[in-house]
From TrEMBL:
Lineage top rank: taxon: Eukaryota
Membrane topology: Single-pass membrane protein
UniProt key word Transmembrane helix: yes
Protein name per the record: Leucine-rich repeat-containing protein 3
All residue ranges annotated as the LRRNT domain in the record: 15-51
Repeat among keywords: yes
Pfam families the UniProt entry points to: LRR_8 (PF13855), LRRNT (PF01462)
Amino acid sequence: QAFFCLLLCIPWGSSCPPSCQCTERAGAKAVLCSSRHLEEIPKDIPRDVVFLKLDANSITRIPSNAFRHLSHLEEIDLSGNAIEKIDRAAFKGVAAGLRSLDLSSNRIRSIPKEALLALKAKLRLANNPWHCECALQEVLWEARLDPDSVRDITCHTAPRQEYVGKPLLQVLDAGANLCSVRQRSTDVAVFVTMFGWFAMVIVYVVCYARHNREESCRHRERPRPPPGAQARAE
């Protein structure tokens, strides 16, 4: 019983990941995991962490609920990794309290807008090989981007070749609307589908009419028996 009571008295989240350093900064706990050759986000981060530095590692993905248990988290630095994929619910549970999120200098080409638009944090997204599309445009319009890094969000690929290599902000300032490109593509797809169904209906009606006409012609051309044969049959 004494051992069980001792376990209950141990504060949860007080341990530090073996590859990191845990310190106090102005009364708030900071977990420093910079340049530790990490390939994923550590699972045993203390629950009371406020500042989390995971920069300069080899992390490739931010999975769903990666920080959900870290309710006190205010700043996350994930810059200088190899992040390619961010799940829609990657920052679920920390969206309300997070003040700063650094995703710069990774390998991010696209990101679900749902992952960032719920955040109130100041975002750094510079120096990634972005594919300039509607979702990124919506993030730029609605998210709180760091003004010092917004001009470094450059189109690595884009629907139109003239956008490639240009800052996304410059492309949008020139009057481009990446969401209208997607809308036009959707409209074309709907039109093609409707035209296909309409063509099928026309072909069916034509074939049906032709079949009925051929049946009618065969019925008229069928030879009638002579009157004598008809009388004998009666």
